[in-house]
Design goal:
Elements lengths: L7 H10 L2 E6 L5 H16 L3 E5 L17 E2 L6 E9 L14 E11 L10 E4 L6 H11 L6 H14 L10 H12 L4 H9 L4 H12 L2 E3 L4 E6 L1 H7 L11 H4 L6 E7 L4 E8 L6 H6 L4 E2 L3 E7 L2 H19 L14
Parallel strand pairs: 1-2, 1-4, 2-3, 4-5, 5-6, 8-9
Antiparallel strand pairs: 7-8, 9-10, 10-12, 11-12
Helix pairs in contact: 1-3, 2-3, 2-4, 3-4, 4-5
The protein binds adenosine monophosphate and manganese (II) ion (2 copies).
The site of one manganese (II) ion (MN) has 5 residues, from α2.
Length: 341
Amino acid sequence: MSDQNASFEQIGAALREHQRFAVLSHVRPDGDALGTTLAVALSLQQLGKEVRAWNEEGMLQKYSFLAGSDLLTLPPSEPEDFDVVVALDTATYNRLGTPLNSIRSSGLWINIDHHPSNPRYGDLVHIDPTAPATGQIIFELMCAARMPVSPAIAENLYAAISTDTGSFQYPNTTARTFEIAAELIRRGVNVGRVSQLLYENFPQRRVELLRELLATMQFACGGKLAWFSLSQATAKGLGVLPEDNEGLIDHLRAIRGVVVAIFFEELPDGKVRVSMRSKQGAVDVCAICKSFGGGGHTLAAGARVKGALDEVTQVIVQKACEAIETAGIPSELEPSGESQS
Ligand code: AMP
Ligand code: MN
Ligand code: MN
């Protein structure tokens, strides 16, 4: 544990000094998790290192277009020894998931992330909650430490930043984010190609899932809270993959007057995956998720809560309503309809 951020120079020196690396990111990976894992793994490979890039889900189908995606695999059943383990974009140690079982020994742990709730596990820790994506921190690290940023690495970092900023839209997107995006384009990213593969290449079943989710949509708190849910039965019926629901919550967040959006997903293990978004800093969804054992950012957070789908929904909706009321957010507009709950 370390209270102070390790400098990029310190991290860069540690990366150059060692030979065998494992690069990991969080369970239910998103574009930031997989993009940064591949970017760091590719850069280390170019420095002549031996690198494993593992994720609990392996490479997701929808991100398999990313340059170098073959590098990222499921963890092996036989554990391996490493000099350094690099954890990226992962708010808690446990969210690294099953790859942890495939590490027999590790010298140094490096933890690079942008979640304010990160408890700073590891030896060299760099947490920057102002960064909109871990991809942005990794770009700064690679420049400061003079690590290779090939076109393949640039594409992975661009995908990481684009997905975590909602295509450069969320409030944590800064001038620096656009400067980095411009630099990545100069280094070879084809924006049209990457954007189309990220946002206009969904399987039909994802849109069928959206139709089912919208059928369960409900509002409370005078239209400031919106949610929808996915049962195991529906997920099985549609044959959806866990990766299919990334981003669907944005349809709720996009509704005028909605301040908090929630997606409830029934998991096979008796828990419910709760995914929350806020449109105003006065309502901190990370604080709500933390009180249920989860975490994340002020405006985007999650938790896995034990219990039946209905029960968990009721408890969380109540908490979210309280948070909205405590924050005293005025209605910008009259709610368009009667509350359904
Ligand atoms: P999601 O809603 O799954 O897209 O997650 C939103 C944000 O919250 C992401 O930055 C996640 O890393 C974080 N997050 C989601 N679930 C958890 C959890 N169970 N514990 C800690 N952080 C989480
Ligand atoms: Mn992530
Ligand atoms: Mn991230």
